[in-house]
Amino acid sequence: xxxxxxxxxxxxxxxxxxxxxxxxxxxxxxxxxxxxxxxxxxxxxxxxxxxxxxxxxxxxxxxxxxxxxxxxxxxxxxxxxxxxxxxxxxxxxxxxxxxxxxxxxxxxxxxxxxxxxxxxxxxxxxxxxxxxxxxxxxxxxxxxxxxxxxxxxxxxxxxxxxxxxxxxxxxxxxxxxxxxxxxxxxxxxxxxxxxxxxxxxxxxxxxxxxxxxxxxxxxxxxxxxxxxxxxxxxxxxxxxxxxxxxxxxxxx
Length: 252
What we know:
The protein is an alpha/beta fold. The chain has one domain: Rossmann fold, CATH 3.40.50. The strands form 3 sheets. Strands 1, 2, 4, 5, 7, 9, 11, 12, 13 and 14 form a 10-stranded mixed sheet that branches. Helix 5 crosses helix 6. The longest helix is centred in the last third of the chain and has 17 residues. The N terminus is likely disordered.
């Protein structure tokens, strides 16, 4: 079992290894790199969707799948796996079967998968075909940004605006309140879509001042009252490697 440093994202997630899928919006790549930097063992990073190129200051090796071959001989600690794409400054996703092969090789202690896209927005609702979470995932982290509270629901901050409006019972242009964020986090058609019986820990990111912390705390408490699907919600400011608060059902 891998050791973890106290009072960081790994410790509040009770994460000592295994397979983690990231869904939603508002910091999936930041979360991916944060988990890789904190973890003491070998880490593989990958995605089931297109994404911006991996930050090579945060990974030791990027290997691109060409002709269905993947490199497994490297001793690099953090290795990113991607598919080819013609889109500039992007990498392609891998099929779940390819990702499972990477994991089953047994060369990594932690595998982190970006399981959907959000076009750099801070909140999203999933379409019917997403997220593409591999079945062998053990932990799902649905992300959203606390900065959306108090903002109007528009395409400036949201991906799949019309779907979000339906899920949150809002009109496009209406103000997003803590209740709306809670509904998204707790909804089987929102943050919980595709999670099956996997362990889920929602993360509200970008909580960078006391006002946002207060509104996000309200949203988290409401979300816990709307579902029994998860037992804790993490409030964080992951750009600065900060866990702000953990709201746990057992302490309510």
